[in-house]
Amino acid sequence: MSLTFSLVAVLIPLLFMPDVVGRLFHEFAITLAVAIVISLVVSLTLTPMMCARMLHTPPQEDVGGFMHGVIERYGRALDWVLERQRATLLVMLGTIALTGLLYLAVDKDFFPGTGQQRHPGDYRGAAGHLLQRHGRASAQSRRCSIGRPGH
């Protein structure tokens, strides 16, 4: 469940992206999020029911010492994880909240293509844009932008 909610949380910023990129990924993000949620519903409802009907208990066979140890270690690890479900839920909710806060807090000009229009030949990306905006761009990047419209 936490993986499902984490995937949906990752897709949420795609829904709110502006400009052409946002229009391109809007339907993609909705489709993927709905498919992931449907997958969660199927895995929690239909899969256990189908397994109960289709899988039969195998006859008891003597497994070797190695496999018996593997099964015991797996059982202990599974018990450890199931005892900490509350912590897992809190981490998942924290991840979703942090994603939302970062989306609201990060400057929209940080990502290339969002915000002011750039010249098509300007490939410096977000780092070059931030450096130029704060006056720390290298001489070479300044020379490359001389003569371009809008610079």
Short structural summary:
The protein is mainly α and 151 residues long. 70% of the residues lie in helices and 0% in strands.
Give an overview of the whole structure:
It is a single chain. By secondary structure, the protein is mostly helical. The protein has seven helices and no strands. α1 runs antiparallel to α2 and α1 packs parallel to α5 (85-105). The longest helix has 26 residues, at 19-44. 1% of the residues are buried.
**Share of helix among residues?**
55-70%
Overall geometric form:
elongated
Largest sheet: none
SSE string, helix = H, strand = E?
HHHHHHH
Number of helices: 7
Terminal CA distance: 48 Å
The beta-strand count equals 0
Weakly predicted, low-confidence segments: 137-143
Question: What is the radius of gyration computed over CA atoms, rounded to a whole number of angstroms?
Answer: 25 Å
What is the typical, i.e. mean, pLDDT? 75
- Give the strand content: under 5%
Q: Which structural class should the secondary elements be placed in? A: mainly alpha
Summarize the SSE layout with pairings.
Blueprint: H1 2-15, H2 19-44, H3 46-54, H4 65-83, H5 85-105, H6 125-133, H7 139-145
Helix pairs in contact: 1-2, 1-5
